[in-house]
Write a structure and sequence with these properties.
The protein folds into two domains: 195 residues, 3-Layer(bba) Sandwich (FAD/NAD(P)-binding domain); 203 residues, FAD/NAD(P)-binding domain. With 416 residues, it is an alpha/beta fold. α5 packs across α7. The longest helix is centred in the last third of the chain and has 26 residues. Strands 1, 2, 3, 4, 5, 6 and 21 form a seven-stranded mixed sheet that branches. It is 24% helix and 20% strand. The protein is built from eight helices and 21 strands. The radius of gyration is 23 Å and the shape is globular.
């Protein structure tokens, strides 16, 4: 006897990826159920961002299918509250079938291969198709050495940081110099906090260059449409995003400027004890990587402008070098420097262990082709480099969602 299905498609995750797939399935008259473990919409934007956070990419790049940005500030940067409101309105406008407060614990194939069983803490559901849209950021990444540090020092992940007033008085150590770490560091030192910043290999991009936001240039020249085969290695898809800011109308973030403003730049964290941390001697290398990233972006944009025959005046970006003159620090005495808080801005780890199928590579990343796996009816959505670099971004999630919805429709036939 064939299994009795609760719905045609179960979508795990109610973020931008899951909602986009749900939208495209409903537009095709398909039946679906979106399971979201959080209690409210836009959980990552609502609860994993600080108070002053603004969209890092221009508003025009907000391209949830059916809710593309149509406001009067396409080149602006929406604040966090406005982003959250967009997601709430999206669900309401299209009556998307989101079930909040439902945590999926496992996905298994029904014996005989006629669909999949999805276990939650509340029920057992069966569906012909399952779309895993939980993203790539499930667990905050913390180094094992963090447990050695004195309990007198407040420790939190960047996703838990809210504002300077929420931290105890004193200096702040931020570990990680990608998007979150740099934006938080800037906010803290601008209100008078002493900031120490452990750097990594994240790049720097100019906010604007030759009359446009750099993100618009990257979209025009096809940089965001690069496919996974263009990566130097499979692990390159996990690299940190270049530092930028959308706050206060958007601006460039430059580590050399940080030095001018009093931030103490450090190398990568190598270890920690109760009151000390040890640092790698790689600060200058990290600065050089950030400088080179910007130079490569500028070269790419200049090449596109030349090839397109655009009549635009040249522009020379500031060439700051202050970081190279910074004193090399091998260890830092946290107590002596008055460090009262540590913010771990090391990103997140992904975990797809709920899917009980052998469809992952040695890194734990799903083996798929544009989201489709070798198991018919099992799909992944919302991951960077799923089909293109922009697959995990608001500007690109709709394209992959449309493709997966089409694949499900073709698999199930034309009759809803």
């Amino acid at each position: 006897m064939p299994p009795k299905f609760d719905t045609e498609t179960i979508i795990i995750g109610g973020g931008q990826a899951g909602l986009a797939v749900g939208y495209h399935l409903m537009q095709r008259g398909r039946e679906a159920m979106i399971l979201e473990q959080a209690a409210q919409a836009a959980n990552a934007w609502r609860n994993d961002r600080w108070d002053s956070f603004a969209l890092l990419t221009p508003n025009w790049s907000f391209r949830l299918p059916g809710a593309e940005y149509r406001g009067d500030a396409p080149d602006g940067f929406m604040p966090r509250a406005e982003i959250v409101a967009c997601f709430e309105q999206y669900i309401q406008r299209y009556h998307l079938p989101v079930h909040f407060g439902v945590r999926v614990t496992s996905v298994e194939q029904i014996p005989g291969g006629q669909g999949y069983r999805v276990e939650t803490g509340k029920s057992s559901l069966q569906a012909k198709n399952v779309v895993v849209a939980t993203g790539l950021y499930q667990r905050p990444r913390l180094p094992s050495s963090s447990s050695s540090i004195s309990a007198r020092i407040t420790q939190l992940h960047s996703g838990q940081y809210r504002n300077p007033q929420s931290l105890p008085p004193g200096a702040v150590l931020i570990v990680g110099s990608a998007q979150s770490g740099c934006q938080i560091a800037e906010e803290l030192y601008q209100v008078g906090r002493k900031v120490y910043l452990c750097t990594g290999s994240a790049g720097r991009a100019p906010r604007r260059y030759r009359g446009k936001d750099a993100y618009e240039w990257l979209n025009l020249c096809g940089f965001l449409d690069r496919t996974p085969d263009k990566l130097p290695s499979p692990r390159a898809k996990f690299a940190g995003n270049p530092h930028l800011s959308g706050r206060d109308g958007g601006h460039t973030i430059n580590l050399h400027q940080f030095v001018r403003d009093g931030v103490v730049l450090l190398g990568r964290l190598n270890g920690a004890s109760e009151r000390k941390i040890w640092l790698a001697p790689d600060l200058k290398d990290n600065l050089a990587k950030a400088d080179k990233f910007e130079a490569d972006i500028v070269k790419l944009i200049d090449g596109y402008i030349l090839q397109a025959g655009l009549d635009l005046p040249p522009e020379n970006l500031p060439q700051l070098r202050d970081g190279y003159d910074a004193e090399a620090v091998a260890e830092l005495d946290l107590q002596a420097e008055g460090v009262a808080a540590i913010i771990w801005a090391l990103g997140y780890e992904f975990d797809f262990s709920l899917v009980k199928l052998p469809i992952f590579d040695s890194d734990g990343y799903p083996i798929q082709k544009r989201g489709a796996t070798e198991y018919p009816g099992i799909f992944f959505m919302g991951l960077p480099w799923l089909s293109k670099q922009k697959s995990g971004l608001l500007i690109g999630v709709g394209e992959d969602a449309d493709y997966i919805a089409s694949a499900i429709t073709a698999r199930e036939g034309n009759n809803p």
